[in-house]
Amino acid sequence: PTVLNCSHTFCESCIYVWTNRSKRCPTCSVIIDSKSLCLTLDSFIEKIVEHLPQEFKQKRTMEKKDRNKIKIDEQLAFENRVDHRLNVIDIEALIRMEALLEAETQWMAMDLANRRYYQRIRHFQNEL
């Protein structure tokens, strides 16, 4: 079991699959900032399973394996879909873009200052 920052609890693999599609809690729609394993609830479930017939234990083991496989498959699909690494060309392009944006911002600030300056001059000329 996995507990979200909003205190809602879900199956670990279920919430893993969910968070690949949405970053909000399925119950309350709060943005998911953190997830943590609930060891207390996990050990409680394991204690209950110990007292169940063997067929239920086997079924639970199989379901856990299936969930882990889904989690691994989802992770692989995500990694194959998106290349998370920036290459040198991307970094150089980002640096050039940052320089252009900075120059544009400075030009806009100077243009605004000039407009205000000329507005003040016109205002004083009109008062005379």
Automatic annotation (TrEMBL):
GO terms for molecular function: single-stranded DNA binding; ubiquitin protein ligase activity; zinc ion binding. GO terms for biological process: DNA damage tolerance; protein monoubiquitination. Residues 3-29 form the RING-type domain. Keywords: Metal-binding, Zinc, Zinc-finger. The keyword rRNA-binding does not apply. Pfam families: zf-RING_2. SUPFAM superfamilies: RING/U-box (SSF57850). It comes from the Eukaryota. PROSITE patterns: ZF_RING_1 (PS00518), ZF_RING_2 (PS50089). The keyword Nuclease does not apply. This is LON peptidase N-terminal domain and RING finger protein 1-like. It comes from Aphis craccivora.
